[in-house]
Amino acid sequence: MKETKLWTALITPLKRDGSVHYSDLEVLIKRQEEAGNGILIIGSTGEGLALSEEEKMGILNFVSELNPNVPIMVGVGGFNLQMQVDWIKGCNGLNIDAFLLVTPLYSKPGVEGQTHWFNSLLDVAEKPCMLYNVPSRSAVKMPPEVLSRVKDHPNLWAVKEASGSIADYQQFRRSAPEIPLYSGDDALTAFFAAAGCSGLVSVASNVWPKATHLYVEKCLKGETESLYPVWNDAVDALFSASNPVPAKLLLNENKVIETAVLKPPLAEMELTDLSELIRVDREIEKWYQNNKD
Predict the structure, then answer these.
(1) pTM score of the predicted model
(2) What is the gyration radius of the CA atoms in the chain, in angstroms?
(3) So what's the pLDDT on residue 2?
(4) Which of 32, 71, 116, 120 is most buried as measured by Cβ atoms within 10 A of its Cβ?
(5) What confidence score (pLDDT) does residue 165 get?
(6) Catalytic residue at 132?
(7) Which residues, other chains included, contact 286 with Cβ-Cβ below 8 Å and sequence gap of 6+?
(8) Judging by beta carbons within 10 Å of its beta carbon (0-12, 13-18, 19+), is residue 131 exposed, middle or buried?
(9) What is the pLDDT of residue 293?
(10) From 160, 182, 215, 248, the catalytic residue
């Protein structure tokens, strides 16, 4: 897993009735395999909190049986600690490689509460774990002191930093310089790479698996002269509505998935003008063709 520089926070494709579209899920996984990207399933981009326990376990079993030749990480997120502990225990025996542990949602705990939360999850995990700082979704930041307290846990592998702040990233780096940090913001990867990040957990690679792989390689090598403004425009378009609405719409537009159906409260109609998505899609393809060799 340490060699995997790009993880795709995979969408969950749905049928028109809202059930999981497994044949489309297999297509998406094979696209990531071909690009050599690790796969995060049932994360926030995968609408994990809107899926039922039965749906989530169905996805896990399906992916586990597919046995892709790239590593699989599973999202762990919520606000009820015992439910997350039970979820991890249920996943431990499956053919997966890692867990993504998000800060507790909604309740906004401080250092003591977050330290207890992460230690409790790390203690029951039988796979390497990536901690996830995403205050825009959880309503609370993970303080650097929390990372300092848990950094020596044998199951802690990495941190996904998605606060949108380079200053916060630098604080985490100082708190635990030996722990790999991954960018959780597609647009900031070049800046995080200059500060020593290990890779990216990406939304963009859902729609551009190979191009985003190349983008990450260039960021990590410091070869950034070709990245702007094309990648800024692309990321802006992908976040012009709540994630994963634009990604699903573009994948559907390109006939990769059958529908752009989302789980409520998200809805396709949140973005009705696809012209900018279509434009940046063409620009990314042109960029990839010009830079892949």
Answers:
(1) 0.95
(2) 18
(3) 80
(4) 32
(5) 80
(6) yes
(7) none
(8) buried
(9) 80
(10) 160
In order of their start, the domains of the chain are 6-224 (3.20.20.70)
Amino acid 164: pLDDT: 80
Q: Is 255 left (phi over 0), alpha (psi -120 to 50) or beta?
A: left
Q: What is the model's pLDDT at position 248?
A: 98
Spatial separation of the C-alpha atoms in residues 183 and 201, rounded to whole Å: 6
Rounded Cα–Cα distance for residues 21 and 30 (Å): 15
Residue 106 falls in the annotated catalytic set: no
Give pLDDT < 50 ranges for the chain. none
Which regions of 186-274 does DSSP assign to beta strands (E)? Answer: 199-202
Compute the distance between CA of residue 62 and CA of residue 96 in angstroms, rounded to an integer: 11
Q: From the candidates 56, 127, 132, 215, which is the catalytic residue?
A: 132
pLDDT of residue 122: 98
How many angstroms separate the CA atoms of 115 and 146, rounded? 6
The pair of three-digit structure tokens given for residue 7, joined into one six-digit string = 């993880």
Query: In the chain, which ranges are E strands?
Result: 6-9, 38-41, 72-76, 98-102, 129-133, 156-161, 181-183, 199-202
239's CB contacts (< 8 A; 6+ apart) are 203, 246
